[in-house]
Amino acid sequence: MSDKTYDSPASSLDGLLFDRMTIMSGGFGLSGNPESLIPEIRNSGVKDLTVISNNAGADGFGLWMLLESRQIARMVASYVGDNKLFEQQYLSGELELELNPQGTLAERIRAGGAGIPAFYTKTGVGTVVAEGKPTEIFEGEEYVRETWLRADLAIVKAWRADPAGNLMFRKTARNFNPNMATAARITVAEVEEIVAPGTFDPDCIHTPGIFVDRVVVSTINEKRIEKLTVRETETAA
């Protein structure tokens, strides 16, 4: 069994980054972001990136770092909210945005990993989402054709891995990460813990190691709360 572990987030990206590449970055809001790998991409100085992710982080967190450094030229995403810098760069024309319905984005990524170049969906029919795209009628209903998404590199965040790259995710941090791991030429996974070979029950592996090229222990695990809501303390009568 080959050992895919690396000593640091920086070393796990060594030789993989180049200008104008396409990167898939896992995460949903503040959950499951590759927090340790993103700063190393920033530090590398690569530019004119196309980044595929549900959103571009939040103010001061996640992919926001690459927006601040002006390294992202194009985002393929489904959500712009809670990130003022993302909004400003798009509205000013500094950043190109391909906005997708969230389910369509997820399916385009899954299709990329499954080797399915295109599929049809009703989502977006009759809206700007369908402009310029072929449509077909199936059983009397109109569907729009969407194409797969693939990338040069996927960076994902998992809970645990073994040295062979088998991954387990924890609860909602799973989100887009498993599909992205299958849809890129190279996948680098940062994990909270690397366990001994044979630790995992095969039935509990979410992403098989065949899809993962490099594994590194994460150095940042903030686990932020995106929107904290608390109940006001009731005053005793």
From TrEMBL:
<dbReference type="GO" id="GO:0008410">
    <property type="term" value="F:CoA-transferase activity"/>
</dbReference>
<keyword id="KW-0808">Transferase</keyword>
<dbReference type="InterPro" id="IPR037171">
    <property type="entry name" value="NagB/RpiA_transferase-like"/>
</dbReference>
<protein>
    <submittedName>
        <fullName>3-oxoacid CoA-transferase subunit A</fullName>
    </submittedName>
</protein>
<dbReference type="InterPro" id="IPR004165">
    <property type="entry name" value="CoA_trans_fam_I"/>
</dbReference>
<dbReference type="Pfam" id="PF01144">
    <property type="entry name" value="CoA_trans"/>
</dbReference>
<dbReference type="InterPro" id="IPR012792">
    <property type="entry name" value="3-oxoacid_CoA-transf_A"/>
</dbReference>
